[in-house]
Amino acid sequence: MSAGHRMKLSSFEAVQRKYKAIFLDSFGVIKNAHGIIEGVVESVKHMRSLDKEIIILTNDSSRSPKELAANFHRLGLELVDEEDIISSGMMARAFLRNKIKKGTIVYVGTPGSSFYVQGLGRPTVPINDLDIDQIEEVSALVFLDDEGFEWQTHINKCVNLLRLKSIPVIVANTDNTYPVSTREVNIATGAIARMVEKISKKKFIYFGKPDSQMFIYAYERLSKKIRVERNEILMVGDTLRTDIMGGNKFGMSTALVLSGNTSETQMRTYIKSTGIIPNYICPSIAID
Amino acid sequence: MSAGHRMKLSSFEAVQRKYKAIFLDSFGVIKNAHGIIEGVVESVKHMRSLDKEIIILTNDSSRSPKELAANFHRLGLELVDEEDIISSGMMARAFLRNKIKKGTIVYVGTPGSSFYVQGLGRPTVPINDLDIDQIEEVSALVFLDDEGFEWQTHINKCVNLLRLKSIPVIVANTDNTYPVSTREVNIATGAIARMVEKISKKKFIYFGKPDSQMFIYAYERLSKKIRVERNEILMVGDTLRTDIMGGNKFGMSTALVLSGNTSETQMRTYIKSTGIIPNYICPSIAID
Amino acid sequence: MSAGHRMKLSSFEAVQRKYKAIFLDSFGVIKNAHGIIEGVVESVKHMRSLDKEIIILTNDSSRSPKELAANFHRLGLELVDEEDIISSGMMARAFLRNKIKKGTIVYVGTPGSSFYVQGLGRPTVPINDLDIDQIEEVSALVFLDDEGFEWQTHINKCVNLLRLKSIPVIVANTDNTYPVSTREVNIATGAIARMVEKISKKKFIYFGKPDSQMFIYAYERLSKKIRVERNEILMVGDTLRTDIMGGNKFGMSTALVLSGNTSETQMRTYIKSTGIIPNYICPSIAID
Amino acid sequence: MSAGHRMKLSSFEAVQRKYKAIFLDSFGVIKNAHGIIEGVVESVKHMRSLDKEIIILTNDSSRSPKELAANFHRLGLELVDEEDIISSGMMARAFLRNKIKKGTIVYVGTPGSSFYVQGLGRPTVPINDLDIDQIEEVSALVFLDDEGFEWQTHINKCVNLLRLKSIPVIVANTDNTYPVSTREVNIATGAIARMVEKISKKKFIYFGKPDSQMFIYAYERLSKKIRVERNEILMVGDTLRTDIMGGNKFGMSTALVLSGNTSETQMRTYIKSTGIIPNYICPSIAID
User: Fold this and answer.
1) What CATH fold (topology level) applies to the domain D5-58+210-235+248-257+277-282?
2) pLDDT for residue A3
3) Using CA atoms, how far apart are residues D159 and C183, in angstroms rounded to an integer?
4) B103: exposed, middle or buried (Cβ count in 10 Å: 0-12, 13-18, 19+)
5) Given an 8 Å threshold on Cβ–Cβ distance, is B199 in contact with A183?
6) Which residue in A has a C-alpha nearest to residue C275's C-alpha?
7) What CATH number does the domain located at B89-206 have?
8) pTM for the full predicted model
């Protein structure tokens, strides 16, 4: 991990051979808003043929793991199942189950994302339906997804809810952006939540990479299947601040791919200016 | 300026008597989204009768000073004219005139706010009309107002514009929020710009309180009319971080009013936790 | 977890009865710079008599767990052993073992703290002995303790090292301060590292509360001894940002004690202004 | 101001010809810890021969303008007098005179730097001599210089003073670092103050570039001598965040020199990653 020689691109096929297990970020690595990224279906098939263990580690809490898997299948990526997917929403859900024992949970996101707050024995209300004059029962605010609500109206409503009531705020996705194409990104839940946090002068509770929690959860799940050391796992992601920082910290090897948030031109500037150094840089996980 | 004894409320009528000139913030002091705040028309009339100089110092760049004055008149506040109003947009406009000598200026805000970017000899385009695939000519991005655009679509467009092109970004309003009622606030341009800045990892150029520039501009304008020292001026505002910090730093006396962003219950917590200490705290500028 | 009713003080004796296991922060809970805090020896004896499991979870990386235990014994607290202590230094050490495979490790701290970088098969050099003109071999910088070096000379040397060489920086203690008495605190390693990080415009890798890693490590160690759910554990700490935030996030109950970093007068302001809400607030862990 | 073509180096001699007045930062432009930077004496003489107005705009508050000038003379730079020098300390001093009307001023810095707090009719105490148990009279804390005190002892004392008493904190130098040689920097007062601010959770009052205040003060002084527009002035500095950001914002042209805080290799990364774009980049102000 020193910044010098690693600025050159490696072949993902060659890199993955060195590891027993591959942890893959989803957005920007496997898919973007247009579908499965080119070459990914073949690459996953190839890794499966080499008996690599694959776990998808995503800050995407817009759908349940079951729905995320179904979506992969619809898009043509068959070899990934529900139990191969770990989302930050799962961590947030475990927290809510443990800590929010009364009152109503207000969430920000799509109906699909509400999976992570439902079935916990607490009533839930989407921010869209919250009457700001009826907040006595509200006991928590949860940011799940950047869609499913009208930004101007409902982000303002979040700010006012937190002015009127001191409640825990849980963020199920720490990301700032997610890629919609090779050229463009969208703002993700994490950045919206941080804006509200800063305005509200509170401390929100964030779940997802780069925090160790998801990596440990994935490592434990993997350890039940195979005997593996942390340095035998490769974490692959398109974002330095979350995937690579988190993977480095957890003691895994890390590969930055340029198929999502981080472009080749940005890569050099970002790595140098942040000091977050991946072990490898690959154009994408496609095998050429 | 020590936090102890100043936590009690003073009568604004008694406070303003000690000063030759009164600088007033607009949103939360004079008006909110529902109109002129109760008692303000009488208070301004009273100060005028005592020959107090009044200057309105606002981070509101949603309209030109002329339009801001016309709006005050429509709402029933007659004794404030165009030349009594200094907006942060005027500072941003001077910067643009000096520094952006070519290309097209893209702005974020209402048609009314576009006053601050027009007539500078440069073509202007609202973010709504920008084609992200046609950005060769764009030479600056200017945040003017929190309205006039669809947040989700166009804040995302700002992020992508800055990913694709390295240009100066000018923010004509540093505020995080502005009050719409005694109970609720709206997110202001400043907070939106800071979110985009953080995502983009750039440094934007901010105009408006608490920076000294507007205070100096107002002080110079005042000095052409009357002979006055800084400590003979009272800065009145509803926001600690901008009005009170800026006024304190410029060497004026400061009065926090509780008719806007800062409520009485928040006030104690905020002053203690930030250490930004106003000379006086008044319920509002109304004279009882 | 809502801020209202919990602002009153509880008896620690009554609180701990509800839990199978008690996780204790060290500085400000068990000891301060003057020795063991009053009543702590009796309280630990009492909890042991009730068969409570006790684990000490500390961001103090100034000594090895063995030395920390020996120090407790010297100070008169006998009922705590090496295996009851988990320090953030242990997390940092595991990272270094996994990720720093070559070169020399430079550390900032006392000889006692160097335990966490030694025995890893890599040469180590205290910042005091580093020749800034001989840094070819340096492969990592590790912040361990706020003592053992001359601040002005050697913090400056850290800044220059990072200007000259892009290497990973590991911080074994995220704390801003630690209490030396009921009245005063000292600046801790975390705050020093964050100053250097900000100046250097890099991203450092932090270990310790509030990150989930130490909580998970402690929970796993505990689970090997007894069958326990997260909500059957009480995390006790004197710092909202680390102990209480981390404990809340991990799904444990939390108790803030006022015997260290946070005084009773600060407590109300901090909880309200941050929104980090402990389940209980106790004067200390002493049983009266 | 777009990042593209300006990444190439210009000759300072050619650049300065285009302007009526040149504003020069001091540390890293005129001098470093080893003395006057090579070629500067000749360059200043050359600009004087062309009748350029020269003002030195420095965040260095370690000495009075008179002492700063005397020091230049001792080092061999004769053509700069006291009235050509404007320091951020002068701004801080004006604030203290206006706003701190009672009590004792505690300062952090050398005896030389104490010029900025003395003669204001208030007793002053260096942090070294403050008895933390005798703080009833203390009404303000002022950060002046990074030398003149023992860092560990006295920065800790600042933190404890602010824990015990809520008073305004004034920072007379916003800089993070200053160059001691072409290779090394020292941490400056601004970075120390920001660390204390963050630990204390207060808002300090900062004076110096990039705030507009010093630029306006300098512009007014200049306007009394010659008729000049802002865009006829060149601001020359070695630091993007202060000199170039401040100069750009004030509407002047800006030149980054590589003889101080910013090296040629860092320059490209910093400009791209921050978006703070100078009009020119020159190796130094030396004329070749």
Assistant:
1) Rossmann fold (3.40.50)
2) 46
3) 12
4) middle
5) no
6) A202
7) 3.40.50.1000
8) 0.92
What's the rounded Cα separation, in Å, for the pair A4 and C103?
Answer: 14
Please report the residues numbered 138 through 167 in chain A whose beta carbons come closer than 8 angstroms to any beta carbon of chain B.
Answer: 146-147, 150-152, 155-156, 159-160, 163-164
Look-up: residue for tokens 């400043």? B190
Interchain CB distance below 8 Å, C270 and B273: yes
Cα separation of the two ends of chain B: 26
Identity of the residue in C147, C160, C199 whose CB atom sits nearest the CB atom of D191: C199
Contact (Cβ atoms closer than 8 angstroms) between residue C114 and residue C149: no
Alpha-carbon distance B77 to nearest alpha carbon in chain D (angstroms): 33
* DSSP state for residue D241 in the 8-state scheme: I
Give the pLDDT means over successive 10-residue stretches in chain A (288 positions).
64 97 97 94 97 97 96 95 96 91 96 96 97 95 98 98 93 94 92 97 92 91 94 96 93 95 84 85 94
**Cis peptide bond prior to D210, omega within 30° of 0:** yes
Q: What is the DSSP string of A244-275?
A: IHHHHHHT-EEEEESSSSS-HHHHHHHHHHH-
Residue A103: list chain C partners with CB under 8 A: 2
Q: CA D65, CA D160: separation in Å to the nearest integer?
A: 32
Give yes or no for a contact between B214 and B225, defined as CB atoms under 8 angstroms apart. Answer: no
Chain position carrying tokens 């919990």: C6
How far off is chain A from C207, nearest CA to CA, in Å?
Answer: 9
pLDDT number for residue C68: 96
Amino acid at C186: N
Q: Which CATH superfamily is domain A102-206 in?
A: HAD superfamily/HAD-like (3.40.50.1000)
Instruction: Please name the member of A100, A203, A230 whose beta carbon is closest to the beta carbon of C274.
Output: A203
pLDDT 10s digits, B22-76: 999 999 999 998 899 999 999 999 999 999 999 999 999 999 999 999 999 999 9
Residue C18 pLDDT greater than 80, yes or no: yes
**Residues A279, A281, A287, CA angle at the centre, nearest 5°?**
120
Cross-strand partners of D138: D104
**Domain ranges, ordered by start, for chain D:** 5-58+210-235+248-257+277-282, 89-206
Strand partners, D56: D24, D85
Closest chain C residue to D194 measured between Cα atoms? Answer: C195
